[in-house]
Amino acid sequence: MPRPSPKALNPLRAPQSYFRIYLRRSAIGLPAKQAGVLDALGLRRRTATVYHPVTPDVAGQIFRVKELVDVEEVDRPLDKKEIKARRTPATGYYVESRAGSAWADE
C-alpha cells in the first residue's frame, strides 16, 4: 500500500499561491538563453499572461527575465475568460431601457 505524501497529511497547509507573469517586452534581439527561459515559462508572445505555482525554480526563471515581465502573486490562476474580462475596458455608458420598450407594453 503506498504511503500518502507529507503534504497530503498536513491539514494546516497554507493554500498555494501563484505567480501571475505578464510578458511586457519582446525577446527579439536577446540572447538565446533568455528567449529559452521565456519559452520554458510558456510566454511565447508579447502581452501573454501565464500562471505558475510559487516555487524557487519558477522564481529563478523569473529573475532571469525580470526586465521583460511583470510579476504579481495571486491566490488562484484565472482562466482565459476572466483574463479577457479584466483587459476589456468599461464601455463608458449603460443602457437604462431599450428603445420602444415602453410602446411594447401597450
Trace the largest sheet across and list its strands.
2-1-3
Fraction of residues in helix: 25-40%
User: What is the CA–CA distance across the termini?
Assistant: 74 Å
Average residue pLDDT: 84
- The CATH superfamily of one domain is known as Ribosomal protein L30/L7
What is the level-2 CATH architecture name of one domain?
2-Layer Sandwich
Descriptive notes:
The chain is an alpha+beta fold. It has a domain at 14-79: Ribosomal protein L30/L7 (Ribosomal Protein L30, Chain: A, 2-Layer Sandwich), CATH 3.30.1390. It is built from 5 helices and 3 strands. It has helices spanning 6-9, 32-41, 56-64, 80-87, 101-104, and strands spanning 18-23, 49-53, 69-74. Helix 2 (32-41) crosses helix 3. The longest helix is centred in the middle third of the chain and has 10 residues, at 32-41. The chain starts with 5 loop residues before the first helix and ends with a helix. This is Large ribosomal subunit protein uL30m.
Summarize the structure.
The protein is 33% helix and 16% strand. The protein is α+β, with helices and mostly antiparallel strands. It has a domain at 14-79: Ribosomal Protein L30, Chain: A.
Task: Detail the topology: elements first, then pairings.
Layout: H1 6-9, E1 18-23, H2 32-41, E2 49-53, H3 56-64, E3 69-74, H4 80-87, H5 101-104
Antiparallel strand pairs: 1-2, 1-3
Helix pairs in contact: 2-3
GO cellular component, one term: large ribosomal subunit
Subcellular location: Mitochondrion
GO molecular function: structural constituent of ribosome
